[in-house]
Specification:
- There is one protein chain.
- This protein has one domain: Sandwich (Immunoglobulin-like).
- Helices cover 0% and strands 58% of the residues.
- The chain has no helices and 10 strands.
- The protein has a 5-stranded mixed beta sheet with strand order 1-10-9-5-6, with no helix packed on it. A 3-stranded antiparallel beta sheet has the order 2-8-7, with no helix packed on it. Strands 3-4 form a two-stranded antiparallel ribbon.
- A hairpin with a 4-residue loop joins strand 9 and strand 10.
């Protein structure tokens, strides 16, 4: 996952990641979901089953997020089934001071 306090420029793409393990071994959950809240409060939901979350390798998933607003961006990974996990993180986005 990305660091909780990373800062990115508006207009860039940020890759948010999740790793799921069972007793230290990377494992695929039965269900993988990503919930995202933009700075304006809009919530977006993404699901591996629908193809809006991608799999990098066993137990590793990601989504590329286009940053279109400044402020705090929250994302929460949720999994269930073989691997049950819930992890919430955030990053900041800011506009450039140079036009």
């Amino acid at each position: 996952m990305t660091d909780n306090y990373n800062t990115y420029a508006v207009g860039t793409t940020v890759r948010v990641k999740a790793e799921f393990t069972v007793t230290g071994t990377l494992s695929d959950p039965t269900i993988v979901e990503l919930y995202q809240r933009k700075p304006d409060g809009t919530q977006l939901n993404y699901y591996f089953v629908s193809g809006t979350v991608s799999k990098e390798s066993e137990g590793k998933f990601f989504r590329d997020v286009f940053v279109d607003a400044s402020g705090q961006w929250w994302h929460e990974w949720f999994s269930s089934g073989v691997v049950g996990a819930d992890d919430e993180r955030m990053f900041y986005a800011k506009r450039s001071v140079i036009p």
